[in-house]
């Protein structure tokens, strides 16, 4: 009985350990996109490129109390060299609201996930469009 109790406590202790090095690495296969710059999408077998063509940031600025937190509206132009689409995406900065955006290009289906958009707005200082860095990942479904 003591061995079972000891094994159970040891299992709980090991499961409760946190590896800080892994938690700061960010999402697997994430890459960065910038406004008006074409970016090759890693980790897809096809040559897939995207370009951020529109960005409207309505998030509540830092150190301000707002009724709602706001969001960022984005439009990406996605191409595989033959087919091109415009892909609208909304980023809320919330794990419960932000979901994978699925899209089709040619015979393939992909999923795009936004992870982070920086810089965060500050009171009286609206960032220029070329200052934004969008962390995202795209996978073939």
Structural write-up:
With 141 residues, this protein is mainly β. 13% of the residues lie in helices and 40% in strands. The protein has a 4-stranded antiparallel beta sheet with strand order 1-8-7-6, with no helix packed on it. Strands 2-3-4-5 form a 4-stranded antiparallel beta sheet, with no helix packed on it. Strand 2 and strand 3 form a beta hairpin. The protein is elongated and about 45 Å long. The chain starts with a helix and ends with a strand.
Keywords:
141 residues, mainly beta, four-stranded antiparallel sheet, 40% strand
Report a brief summary of the structure.
The chain has 141 residues and is mainly beta. Helices cover 13% and strands 40% of the residues. A four-stranded antiparallel beta sheet has the order 1-8-7-6, with no helix packed on it. A four-stranded antiparallel beta sheet has the order 2-3-4-5, with no helix packed on it.
Please indicate the percent range of residues in DSSP E strands (runs of 2 or more). Answer: 35-45%
Mean pLDDT figure: 80
User: Distance N terminus to C terminus?
Assistant: 48 Å
Low-confidence stretches: 5-26
């Amino acid at each position: 009985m003591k061995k079972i109790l000891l094994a159970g406590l040891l299992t709980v202790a090991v499961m409760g350990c946190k590896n800080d090095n892994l938690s700061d690495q960010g999402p697997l296969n994430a890459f960065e996109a910038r406004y008006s710059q074409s970016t090759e999408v890693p980790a897809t077998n096809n040559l897939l490129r995207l370009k951020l063509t529109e960005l409207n940031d309505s998030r509540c600025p830092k150190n301000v109390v707002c009724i709602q937190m706001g969001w960022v509206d984005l439009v990406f132009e996605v191409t595989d060299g033959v087919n091109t689409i415009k892909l609208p995406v909304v980023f809320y900065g919330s794990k419960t609201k932000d979901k994978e955006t699925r899209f089709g290009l040619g015979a393939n289906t992909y999923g795009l996930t936004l992870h982070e958009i920086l810089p965060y707005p500050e009171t009286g200082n609206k960032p220029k469009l070329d200052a934004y860095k969008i962390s995202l990942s795209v996978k073939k479904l």
